Amino acid sequence: MKKLAILLLAVLFIFFIQEAQADEVKKDVKKSDSAGELEQLKARVENLEKAIKDGEVVDELGHKLHSIHSVYGLKISGGLTLTAQGTDYKNSRGAAAISADIVLESPVGKDGRAVAVLDFQRGPGLQNLPLFFTSPNGNPTGPNNDIESFNNDQLHVAQFYYEHNLSSSMVISIGQLDPTAYFDTNNFANNERIHFLANEFANNPTIEFGGSQDFYGPGMRLTYSPVEQIGITLGAFEGDGDYVDVFSNPFLMAEVDLKIKPFGRDGNYGLYYWSRQGRPDLTNVANPNDASLRKAANNGAGLSLGQMIGDTVGI
Description:
- Helices cover 16% and strands 37% of the residues.
- It contains 1 helix and 12 strands.
- The longest helix is centred in the first third of the chain and has 50 residues, at 2-51.
- The chain has one helix at residues 2-51, and strands at 52-53, 56-57, 75-86, 94-108, 112-122, 152-167, 170-177, 217-227, 230-237, 251-260, 267-277, 297-307.
- The strands form 2 sheets. A 10-stranded antiparallel sheet has the order 3-4-5-6-7-8-9-10-11-12, with no helix packed on it. A two-stranded antiparallel sheet has the order 1-2.
- The chain is of the alpha+beta class.
């Protein structure tokens, strides 16, 4: 009996030792699994950090991908405008036009971006108008500033430029630009789709903007904002936008904008100066019969003011 009790105690002792060892093995396995999961998580984070490097798109090995291989960071926006106009002049009863704008923006590095503005249009707008209203496009007196000088079923590149943040307060753009996007802007009269359709109500008609008759052309602009309330913009553009003799007869413009809140109401006050020295032809001058205008200068200064006077009313 005594031997049996000793044997039972020995068996129980061995059993408890084995159980304890098994628990230790399980704990070691759990620790090993946790460590393995942690290492896997760290590896995934490192791979993600490698894949997103300074805004560039790279593969798992860190090789930079061409933008056509990835849509990382690509922004796409656009709009569609349909217009209908009518007149009794020379039995020209009316005309319709449709215009679509597509904007593509892709990051380039950490502080840069490439922007393309595509335009599709059908319909030339009103025709057979008096000579004073000959062009519905870049001409300051045109009746429809939304449609461009082209009229076909092709997709056209209106703007294509590179923009870079030189610092937190300075940005530069260079390429195919629209100077009216940076100068003589106004919160209430700068968009032909939601403000005024005719160009003379969108921009100062006395400014002979550079670029093509639609204002598009090669150039650059630099904007510096020393404080949030002040913006200083300088621009240089080719006179006629055809990329021939780019540095001859340029269009130059500078503007200072002040953002203030008189009586607690948002206001934007812009003071600008422009200079245009000559032009390649007489197509869009005030008087095509005056050959002296081909070499004449067009300089001037102006104001662009926008002030809220109520919650929903501004001037």
